Records
---
Amino acid sequence: METIWFVLVAVMVAMYVLLDGFDLGAGAIHFLVARTNEERRQVIATIGPVWDGNEVWLLAAGGTLYFAFPTLYASGFSGFYLPLMIVLWLLILRGTSVEFRNHIQSPIWIPLWDFIFSVSSLLLAVFFGAALGNVVRGVPLDASGYFFEPLWTNFRLGEHTGILDWFTILVGVQALLALMMHGGLWVQLKTRGAVSERAGELAGKAWWGVLVMTAVVTGATFVIQPQVIANFHTWPAGYVLPLLAVAGFAAVKFELHRKNERNAFLASCTYFLGMLTSVVFGVYPMVLPARNPAFNLTVQNAKAGAYGLKIGLIWWVIGMALATVYFVYVYRSFAGKVAETPDTPGHGD
Amino acid sequence: MGLALLLVILKTLALRTGDEHYNRAARFWAKIFGINFALGVVTGIPMEFQFGTNWAEFSKAAGGVIGQTLAMEGVFSFFLESSFLGLFLYGEKRLGRIGHWWAAFLVFLGSWMSGYLIVATDAWMQHPTGYRINAAGGIELASYWQLILNPWALWQYAHNMLGAVQTACFVMAAVGAFYLLVKRDLPYGRTFVRLGVIVGVIAAILQLVPTGDFQGKMVAQNQPAALAAMEGLFVSQEGAPLAVIGQPDVEKRQLDNPMEVPRMLSLLTYKHWSAHVQGLDAFPANQWPDKIELLYYSYHVMVGLGTIFIVVMALSVFLLWRNKLYESRWMLWILMLSVPLPYIANTAGWMTAELGRQPWLIYGLLRTIHGASPRVGAGNAWFTLLGFMGMYTVLSILWLFLVYREIERGPEPENAQPAGETAPAAD
């Protein structure tokens, strides 16, 4: 049962990364692909109706994690106290900027929110990457089951790690580049003209960066977290996951070349899905590895009571089936490219 | 949540009467709803995180139980709300009249479900049900339905939602009163005032009877020390009086300058003139709520304002019935100036609930002092608290500015074309 919940939470987190990933990426490349106020309006318009729903995946995944693995939630969230608070501030700034940017047509109002939107998106991408890096690397849990990481210590992988060290920074950079690619492909798909072209070009350039960083980070991961290799060794069927990532990644370049915008974006989704599932597969049965393996949090010692997990499965399946219906409906409703000019004059405030 | 209900009412009126006026009114309030919703979303996310970041011991102990309701809120309510809000705000033409009504209804449904699930979470902390203590000493879920149908949750929810509805009614009536007083957008002014006071008087009365009454009985039954502190009753007695005004002096264990209604507390709580009511002296001091003065004032502010709301709304409805409301400038002034009061009453109500529960985090099970995160030091907690205070101050100013701006700009003119489709551009 706890393994089922491990998989379900992982699926929800993966959905969050795929969906909110493209709008974070769109934010990170905001100034690179859009030069004028009008072009920037288009970039924001591609995510306007959906970013909030995408972010709900984070909340729903958090809630599910909370009830399935309460010990992990308590230990992880209090240990990652500072970076999580900074993430919250960035999420607040970012959400506010998307919603409020178009309220007032003024040369001081719009650029301010554009700037906040882009910088907060960019930093969030790095922080989420670094967070994933921390989980893979392991945290300084002790016998109490708790830990507290400062933002940084000496940037080395010793006993007293900080949130940022050379490894987690590398993962952060990888995440940023990958989300820039992902966001670029999304903006390319949802816009027309110069913005779309620049976004596609940028995604193509970011692809090379992602290639290098993926290779480097994967290599480092094998060294730092031996569980990963052990798991692939024990269950060779797991190799299908990294293969999925590689296939998706190659397809991004191929589809970009063929100018198939939809497939390129879907290929990028496949890359993310493959990468994330590989990581999750690699650390199982740990949910939060400790620097000292004696204190690892695993699906066994972090799970909630059996009755709760069983009953949760019933409502979870019903709830997520409904949520999937809403998402399909909403994305179909807002299908197609956003207009190059606002439809109705005077709208947007 | 209150405005979501009023939006459904406006959309229903538009559908039933076929009068485009109500659709235009709904579009005006939808803009304000959008601003509120955006700020609600971004300030709501920290609340879920904070269970883990700041209350780790509590989460570890109780996450298996209240995690159920919190996760259900995400899965059932937030997806529903966020999906249909986008359609409600940007898809009016695309969806058609009936479809747009449904979008409004589903946003309402999502937000009201969300309200229930979060209140059920709080209710479990006030009055834990459906749990058992396992072999390791942890708390785990024993009965899903006892958690969901906690009797405390049912009354607290009704009481809380009526507070939300009253807030929306006062805001709507105040904006309407403002338009009537400055003699602009008169048809809208009349609609807003009318809808606000009619729904408002119903909510104001239900807030007191039965929901407030039953909520009080719940407290009397399950948290008698909290009731004694709320009422400022230091000494147990038969035929206990109800203190209307007075300042609690905890040191001397007395109420200074009291204005009391004799025997009223006994009557209200136990339906008997001379019923015995436990005062604070019936409980050891380590069971007393920590901030008795603040609790006492929160409760009295809530009840006092609730009473004023009934009077204001009833008077307005009476004038409306006599066809005098729109010309009674004094009444419109009162409605306009009342706008902050329901916000204060709601805050005071929540403070009453949460201060009354002290010193418990989960009543009878876990002390607040034992629920915090063991490794988060005071320096880091202060750092983030100050950060949030600064951030929320900025957001409050922004909110006031943007909402005021929408009110100043006002609804579409009555002779405007039916609104065009709005692009999926952010609004």
---
Amino acid sequence: MNTRNDRAQAHTLEAFAAAILLVAGLTFALQATAVTPLSASTSNQHIENQQRAVANDLLATSAENGDLEAAVLRWNTTNQAFASSPPEVDGPAYTQADGPNGFDAALGGFGEALNRAFADRQIAVNVDLRHYNTSARTERLTTPLIDMGTPSDNAASATRTVALADDANLTAPNHTDSTLGELSDGEFYATETATDPLFTYVEVRIVVWRM
Amino acid sequence: MADVSLGPPDRDRLFGGEDASEADRGQLLLVAGLVMAVSLVTLVVLLNATIYSENVATRGVASADGEALEVRATAVDGTGELIDATNRAGPGGHGNATETVRDGVTDLDAEMSRSYAERGGVTHLELLGVQNGTRITGAITGNATGDPNASTLARDVDRTRGFVLDVDPGNLTDANATSAVDDAFHVDLDNSTGGSRQVYVYNGSDGNVTVAVGENGSVPAARCAVPPDGRGRVAVDLTGERLGDRPCPGIWPTTLVAPDDAYDIALMNASAAGGEVTATARPVSGDTVTADPGFGATPAVYGASIELRYRTAELRFETAVRVAPGEPDA
């Protein structure tokens, strides 16, 4: 065979290789993005899993020792806000873990647990309380307990439902003599939706993300 | 090394002359280089995809498990709070109490169905049955009609839960482990065949509220202590094994977690303490536990059995749970 004829074959191979290189380059370029501490990746996924597990366990232990219920009941009926939440904040929630004690002073044992698990490690946390509007449960309302901003794309969440009884006392200072059953409509953030002797169910939802 | 330089223009070398092998070599090297580059890039992409797939594949199971556990916790916590709230309200009889719990579980089922439907899950909660008992409350001092220092809180008990002493630290006797046997307030748990166990509560030498556990009247061993910190009341949760707001393992005798036969609960040296006592007990037979008349005894639901089903597109979970909040762990 004349070696001159081989050149066409080499040209064809070269064209194929170039085409594949272009496609592979494009694919790689599309997959590659700037990696920041907040961008999605396999290592980031592990951290999300860990944070979700910590949030779940924190809710479980707080529910077990009663801290969670105490925090949910820390409602000041006069101000229509959670006790000691800063007045400059729009809405009833605590905004940030400011001050040397973070959430401790405001939320007792639950706040202390949040500080140790998240705030001290530069992990932001939102806590929302979700409850239904009527006993027919047509619409779900959300009352923020802690609002540290908008979660990132890599936030992890955990939920736990707390049953509140009619004879449960509020835990806010100067309101500890009031029980939920004695309050008039609209004084507590959640309306009575459950049958007696329970008052309502509140779903506590924690959202955590790295700051 | 191969000579790939072009050198001065030479028609034969550039375009192939009679013998074109020298011109082909540069082109083949280029092709080989391209193929190697493409292979490496493909390898990197494939490796990345494999790692990611493995990560995703091993991740799903754990989160699905967590979901089922969360549903279970909602059912168990909700039913537990319902039972306790029903008992606290002081129902007229065991029939009324059961009816209230049944209605409450139906309502909890409605709440859970609505709540988990938002996540694409179907739940069903059903009350299988209840176990009757008695809720006993009263002041620690001055209850007994007979001996003021040895009053029976409950007789012929099979199981106890939610047994909490709310003691006033200011009224507790100062004692140490040795003097506690004679002087300190204690709870006597007398098992008809297995001997007796005592749980002592006193002010230790350091001023802390101290809980000690003894057996058959022997010198007790201190288990834990908590500073009163000016609090009016310190809760000693015997079945929950907590002192104040801290865990205190080992204060409830392990032999009485699931005893073979009945035991009596008595408050001894009650004048050496002040405060309140609360307990819910299940009798060894019948529906009611007898207590000394000084205590308030009301019909109560001791525990309930519920059946829970939860189903999503990826998960099917079914379990029957016995709910008795505040029962000692086995």
